Backbone:
């Protein structure tokens, strides 16, 4: 199922870029877009995790500087029967975390400095077990690729809006203008739909899987409440909204209609389910 989803996402990105290339540059644009699409497909599979880590300036966590973090992940990895993932620190005060990579043997867990400072040992274990559950469920590749694709879609939509603003309709007349309007309006929506296609249920599954590793859902429930309260009071200003689906809690502001298209289920519902688990 993972391979099918990955293939469909990459195929969608290819078709999208080819279509936009043709709209913006006819046959020449189509050929250019074809080469871009081939390169994007290759790099999305092999380097999407590195792209996301680079966006947030993640730094590899040394065992000497973060012995407690390494010890915690080593212990949880043994319980989850997983290879120990690479560990990265995100230099931001917003408490959060995410997992990335293309499989269990090439996985990484990234934790913010804020999470290390705000969460106690049990809560941090809950968060890390959630991320290890994502790795164990083999959904980190599809999530990371979706984040990269959504980011590309956002840039394409921005470019289309700029062309409309500058009145670049020299070729194609009204038909091209209509096409650009469609691209500008529906591209961001397509980005959201891609992320929603991953399904909010993956967060519920990761929550339950993380609780299973600890044999207790309360530490993660407590951590989620802290992370969600901070995100609502001080949402992340820097970063790419397309990567929201990677984080354990959406670090960006989601108000009004945006909540309807949230890539995460409500924290209240997640906490409720975690507290009902029995081991």
Residues:
């Amino acid at each position: 199922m993972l391979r099918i989803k990955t293939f469909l996402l990459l195929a969608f990105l290819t078709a999208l870029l080819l279509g936009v290339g043709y709209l913006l540059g006819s046959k020449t644009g189509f050929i250019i877009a074809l080469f871009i699409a081939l390169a994007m497909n290759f790099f999305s599979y092999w380097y999407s995790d590195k792209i996301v880590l680079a966006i947030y300036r993640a730094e590899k966590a040394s065992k000497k500087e973060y012995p407690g973090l390494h010890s915690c992940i080593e212990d949880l990895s043994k319980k989850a029967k997983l290879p120990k993932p690479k560990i990265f620190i995100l230099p931001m005060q917003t408490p959060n975390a995410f997992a990335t990579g293309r499989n269990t043997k090439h996985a990484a867990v990234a934790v913010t400095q804020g999470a290390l400072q705000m969460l106690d040992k049990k809560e941090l274990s809950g968060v890390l077990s959630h991320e290890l559950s994502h790795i164990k469920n083999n959904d980190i590749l599809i999530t990371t690729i979706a984040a990269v694709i959504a980011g590309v879609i956002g840039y394409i939509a921005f470019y289309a809006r700029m062309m409309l603003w500058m009145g670049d309709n020299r070729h194609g007349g009204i038909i091209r203008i209509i096409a650009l309007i469609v691209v500008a309006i529906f591209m961001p929506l397509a980005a959201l739909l891609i992320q929603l296609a991953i399904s909010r249920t993956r967060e519920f599954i990761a929550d339950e899987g993380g609780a299973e590793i600890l044999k207790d859902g309360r530490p993660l429930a407590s951590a989620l409440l802290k992370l969600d309260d901070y995100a609502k009071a001080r949402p992340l200003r820097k970063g790419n909204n397309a990567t929201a689906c990677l984080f354990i809690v959406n670090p960006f502001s989601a108000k009004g209609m945006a909540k309807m298209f949230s890539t995460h289920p409500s924290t209240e519902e997640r906490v409720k389910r975690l507290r009902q688990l029995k081991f």
